[in-house]
């Protein structure tokens, strides 16, 4: 976390896709099905997709998974989650997860700087 | 987790209050202020209290904190979060956090059995 | 963890089954599918079921999930994992996860005392 | 964490000793050596034992290991760590680890109530 | 962790400050107050600042937060924590948190190489 | 995790060795002994070295330690663990630890691409 970092959405998406493909090429049925469950978990249902992405974001923040945080930030922006709402999510994550979440909030605002506006 | 457990809301609330009071009697200003931040994090704001309780619940589930899960379940019910919505939150927590979350979902449904309906 | 605890396999299994049923009664398709993936992950494949249960046990130990540890101990015993092998798994978990794993190894030997021999 | 709990030092110590003995009876050399390292880590050295117990306590709090917290509380009291110092340790743990540490601070004050004064 | 890394204190401090400012510009009162609590938690009190930084370091090590570890190493050096004391803190973190802490101890000695002597 | 990364085994091994040497130069007996325990934990015993490396891998995956994952992947390949077996280990880690393990599986397949075949 201590190095300068700029988030490049295209490079991020390309690497993610390339390696997910590589994982799925392995042909393990359980892994393939897990990936499907992961995708479906954030689709509209009794809770709408926009709120689910906020749920995914707060979970990723308290578990301190940079890659997951970046993914849900991209989705939140795509679905119109506002900056004020993102700050509320950051605040819940900070209170629940403590100061060790702060480096990931720093990384998150860095990612947001690099994303096109909502 | 392996023992039979029934959730008694009154006993839970009484113990929580008694021990929070005991902690605050210690007089540490930082701890007192943290408790205030914790309370305020779930109040209506750019994100409404109902959604914030779902955020708190999913964070507590993936961090596997039984006491925190019980607290947010009580709040979710109080604010009218439906069973279908709770299941969606459980599902996001399960996908993000994996099967180690399942014992806490078992504990959560046990708690819900003991709570008055929404 | 500080209270005396004795593991009752029948009570454990009954509670687990009753609450799993309760969770699945909720009817969420994602949760149902996750439960299926969870079951299948420990079936014979390129790695045999016996080794997979040792993998599940070490993962549960380092993540410090008492309920999951108990489950995999039962399965390990059922599949003939020896005491000497279990100790090796405990040792890997202890080295990887540190002294915070010790209370769960204490709980594990307590559970093993209560299980019928392999 | 939601059930009433009272800490009984004698029962705690007896169970801990009995199960540690049981673990060591297994005869695994690695586990035995780890237990020795664990004991030695808290002895006087470049950092004194009293401070080391505070280090062990804050680590146990942020990792949320009730059994470990109880152990280090007993040691801290034995070595004369004051209530004001314990509150400072609780505060650092709370800020670093967030509100999910609170149930363990509640449990800690409950344990302290049951311990003889320093 | 697998890439060569050299710690540049000025770049680290500049990035940290720039992104903290960015976070606080968002204007969320809860986040601002949390940052204040975080700062105050390490000030002299019933426990002196030097010991508190060692508490912060051991907590960051067992939670495996590189950015937090670097921060507390800088503070420890600034407050005259000796190499022998740092090694004791590393040892407690290693015993409590296990071998998964080792990559962070490697990163810590790399950071220390780059810091001016105490 | 969001940046392109290629695993260079020689650079990885050199850095690891250089920093381990640096840590051990510090002369702390406890740390030295822990390093010995860590090495011995993966040697042939009641469980063979090959299976122990799979145990180490699954533990590193669910604890999400990139450096540890890379280390155990190298050892698994060296001991002839097949791609089909690695996929089974990935699947257990994924089911136990959830989608937050996925970025580390992506990183693992990237590392495997860079390793000589078994």
Q: How would a crystallographer describe the biggest sheet of chain A?
A: none
Percent of residues in helices of chain A: over 70%
Give the CA-based shape of chain A. globular
Secondary-structure element order of chain A, as H and E?
HHHHHH
Please count the beta strands of chain A (DSSP E, at least 2 residues each): 0
Kindly report the greatest chain-chain contact and the residue count on each side: A-B, 30 and 30 residues
Radius of gyration of chain A: 15 Å
Low-confidence runs of chain A: none
This entry's quaternary arrangement is homohexamer
Number of helices of chain A: 6
> Beta-strand level of the residues of chain A, as a percent range?
under 5%
Q: Can you put this structure into words, describing what you see?
A:
The structure is a homohexamer of 118-residue chains. The radius of gyration of chain A is 15 Å and the shape is globular. The model of chain A has no long low-confidence stretch (mean pLDDT 94). With 118 residues, chain A is mostly helical. Chain A contains 6 helices and no strands. Chains in contact: A-B, A-C, A-D, A-E, A-F, B-C, B-D, B-E, B-F, C-D, C-E, C-F, D-E, D-F, E-F. Chains A and B meet through helix 3 and helix 5 of A and helix 3 and helix 5 of B.
């Amino acid at each position: 976390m201590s190095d300068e970092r700029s988030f490049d959405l295209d490079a991020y998406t390309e690497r993610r896709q390339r390696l997910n493909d590589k994982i799925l090429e392995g042909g393990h049925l359980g892994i393939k099905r897990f990936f499907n469950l992961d995708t479906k978990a954030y689709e509209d249902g009794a809770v709408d997709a926009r709120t689910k992405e906020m749920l995914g974001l707060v979970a990723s923040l308290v578990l301190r998974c940079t890659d997951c945080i970046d993914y849900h930030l991209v989705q939140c922006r795509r679905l119109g989650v506002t900056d004020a709402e993102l700050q509320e999510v950051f605040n819940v994550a900070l209170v629940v997860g403590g100061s060790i979440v702060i480096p990931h909030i720093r990384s998150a605002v860095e990612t947001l700087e690099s994303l096109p506006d909502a």
